[in-house]
Write a structure and sequence with these properties.
Helix content is 60%, strand content 10%. It has a two-stranded antiparallel sheet. Helix 1 crosses helix 5. The radius of gyration is 20 Å and the shape is globular. The C terminus is likely disordered. The protein is mainly α and 156 residues long. The chain starts with 6 loop residues before the first helix and ends in a 15-residue tail after the last helix. Strand 1 and strand 2 form a beta hairpin.
């Protein structure tokens, strides 16, 4: 099979379409939390050792902004701050059962939205997409190579 003339552009367009499908799965249902708050819950759910400073790094914000986000989530009953058992001076961020339930519902809605799109594709194309996505994931998680830069840009 021949490589499309601009594969990166095609992937970018497909990614935009996927983001649209995923976003619509959330926006069609009245969510009590903002997209940023959902992102915070998702991040801490997948990283049980996260503290406010670590969250700030993940979000690329200052710790005070991350702390305010956590304050709001805690007030909503979606986040708890608990002492780290290894170092009681550290405070870990833990999603509550309500937060885990919310994330599970969100994931289910998103999966259903993607499945609806997949069902409009021919079976062979679905299989080819799966193979290509698995290969892309392997390549993306492999040891990163240096990103080519514009040779006209000079560094001091």
């Amino acid at each position: 099979m021949e490589r499309p003339p601009n594969l990166a552009a095609a992937i970018d367009a497909a990614a935009e379409a996927l983001v649209g499908v995923l976003d619509s799965a959330v926006s069609r249902h009245q969510m009590a939390v903002s997209p940023t708050q959902l992102r915070v819950l998702s991040l801490i759910s997948g990283r049980p050792q996260t503290n406010v400073n670590g969250l700030a790094e993940l979000l690329d914000v200052v710790p005070s902004s991350a702390s305010r986000l956590c304050d709001r989530l805690e007030a909503m009953g979606l986040l708890r701050r608990v002492p780290d058992p290894r170092d009681r001076r550290e405070v870990r961020l833990v999603p509550t059962a309500d937060a885990e339930r919310l994330l599970g519902e969100l994931q289910e809605r998103r999966h259903r939205a993607v499945q609806a799109v997949l069902e409009r594709m021919p079976g062979g194309a679905q299989h080819e997409l799966l193979v290509a996505l698995l290969a892309f994931e392997r390549a993306a998680t492999a040891a990163p190579a240096e990103v080519p830069t514009d040779s006209s840009v000079r560094t001091a």
